Amino acid sequence: MRESVLSAVQIVLTLALVAWMITGFTPLPGRWLRWKMFCRATFTIVTLTGTKDGHAEPVNVYDHLSPGSFILGPPQLQAILDHLTNSGRYDRIDGTGRVLSASGEQPVKVVNSRVVG
How many Å apart are CA 43 and CA 101, to the nearest integer? Predict the structure, then answer.
């Protein structure tokens, strides 16, 4: 009898945990994911083109982050753009993309190596 009660309690707790996890990962309006780590993180997804002496090439800003880094907000993006232009690697960098954060999804532009909007 005691074993069947324990099994019933384990099943109920397991189902409650699964239900809590499912609702914790469902999106809310204006939110990317509801899990607290994702709600407080900011991700920038951009397509950038760097120009040097009239020659254009794609720029991957994630190549310039430390290994394992994946959270990149507009201030960090601007710091990388400043580094790439100040080091002389590019004369200018332009592109478009979006920022995902707790505030939802917003467009972002890079114009003449400056993060705009």
Answer: 7
pLDDT tens per residue across span 71-99: 788 998 999 999 999 999 999 999 999 99
Q: Summarize pLDDT for 6-65 with one digit per residue, the tens.
A: 688 888 989 888 887 776 665 555 554 455 555 567 888 899 999 999 999 999 988 888
Closest CA to 47 of 110, 112, 114, 97: 97
Three-state SS across the chain?
CHHHHHHHHHHHHHHHHHHHHHHHCCCCCCCCCCCHHHHHCCEEEEEEEEEECCEEEEECHHHHCCCCCCCCCHHHHHHHHHHHHHCCCCCEEEEEEEEEECCEEEEEEEECCEEEC
